[in-house]
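debug: dumping io for the single-chain case to check the tokenizer round-trip. Nothing else runs in this session.
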Amino acid sequence: MSAFTAAVTGIGLVTAAGVTAAETWERVLQGVPGNVGPIPQLAGLAYDFGYSVPPGRLDADALLGRSAARTMERFAQLAVIAAREALDQAGISTEDWNATRVAVVIGSAHGGLDVYDDATAMMRAKGDRRVSPMVTPLSLLNHAAASVSLDTGARGPSMGMAASCASGTSAIGHARLLLRAGLCDIAIAGGAESMHSRTLIASAIRAGTVSTHRHDPAAACRPFGADRDGMVMGEGAGVLVLEHPGHARARGARVLARVCGYGSANDAHSPAVPHPEGAGLEQALRTALADAAEAGVAPEDIGHVNAHGTGTVANDAIEAAALHRVLGTGPLVASTKAVTGHTLGAAGAIETALTVLALRDQVVPPTANLDALDPEIRVTLQAKRARPTRMTAAVKTSLGFGGHNAALVLTR
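debug: decoded output
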């Protein structure tokens, strides 16, 4: 198959670090954790904090209209707001496009799980007749994709992508495949999550996957650190506008970056922990690099990796080992989760957008809170401060429960 690069012409971000891509990127470059603190619905649990969009900065009723906002769960609202920013940056008017040639692919790990929590509590307290008929559509994993399609009028392929914490990365990779297959000219792709479910957090506490540093939430997420002890959950959305290169060229679009490689693989090892040698991640990364090779990108061209880097003990070590086997110590590796939190199914999309910005500005962001690197980790970690770096290509990696792994290769 001939080389194919999808043109990235717009990005939109809503995160704990900011309510636009520019705000988020500025804070990421500063290496300062975003809005993180107690979460009311988690009160009384051993883990009771997390990252959330700065309060008072995002009025969904005002932005979306009260009626429309009431038909969307929080994660779908964030997806629509991010999609609007991405389309605006791309200079695309939904009134002028061919809606049948526009695809929407939005990933999420849990969708509207909070809706179930609330409905269950309502049913127990007041009976089944008080449960809203909207529970089903608002809780579905495809609800964000459906909401973006409805908001924009896009009538091409539309789907939710479910690959756990690799959902956002996989959504962008799949969108590129749709463009490559000629099934659309434009793809609105990314991920969205807003989920501080008490039930899920209780399970995560039992599994030992969340940080115990409730006394200092801003310092709790420590990707690749010697003292890391677990992830810190967050909410957010990241959306990219991808275009067929011919379509972008015909309308004179400014191309921010290009997606030239995608790989996806499963560990087939465990429902909860990654393969101890990172076999699936290595396969996904090698597949993405082989794909990118068709566009003339070699492994030695990779100057930066935005890693999954959750701050969990096993995950970070496994990911770093796989990156070292494939890319050695050449690329500057960073995790941005200490700034945004781990946004689960949205993480890969948010971090792909940040990778686009890193390529655009020729700078590698720091890994916030990385005070003491784990000596067993042999990749080159960028810590403390951002580093200007000349680079032509970068990689985004993601791992997820169920053994899901995904990798993207992007170029300037």
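debug: round-trip ok. The chain has one domain: 6-411.
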